[in-house]
Amino acid sequence: MVFESEIENAKNSLIGKNDISLQRNAAINSRISIPYLYGLDPNEPFSFANKIRSINKAEVDFVIQKFLDKTNFVTVSVDPN
């Protein structure tokens, strides 16, 4: 599966990117108005970090087991020829 340190690095990266994206007024407007139009919580961008921090290794391992099957996958190779 994955190491705890990998999960923490991914969490920090996602939270950092979200925080940076909220530094522009246009981005804040977009991130609030789109969920509102779909009847979702317009405060989601501001609770994102807490939701990401709450994810634990057991949940990540469960999702890996459920969706990443070593016997059923597709390999894509890109070749200039």
Name the features.
mainly alpha, 4 helices
Structural overview:
- The termini are far apart.
- The protein has four helices and no strands.
- It has one domain (4-67).
- Helix content is 64%, strand content 0%.
- The mean pLDDT is 91.
- With 81 residues, the chain is an all-alpha fold.
- It has helices at 4-21, 25-37, 44-53, 57-67.
- Helix 1 packs antiparallel against helix 3.
- It is extended.
Set out the fold topology.
Layout: H1 4-21, H2 25-37, H3 44-53, H4 57-67
Helix pairs in contact: 1-3
Question: What's the gist of this structure?
Answer:
It contains four helices and no strands.
Give the terminus-to-terminus CA distance: 35 Å
Spans with pLDDT under 50 lasting ≥5 residues? none
Specify the overall morphology: extended
What percentage of residues falls in helices of 4 or more residues?
Answer: 55-70%
Would you tell me the structural class of the helices and strands? Answer: mainly alpha
Radius of gyration over C-alpha positions, nearest whole angstrom: 17 Å
What is the domain total for the residues?
A: 1
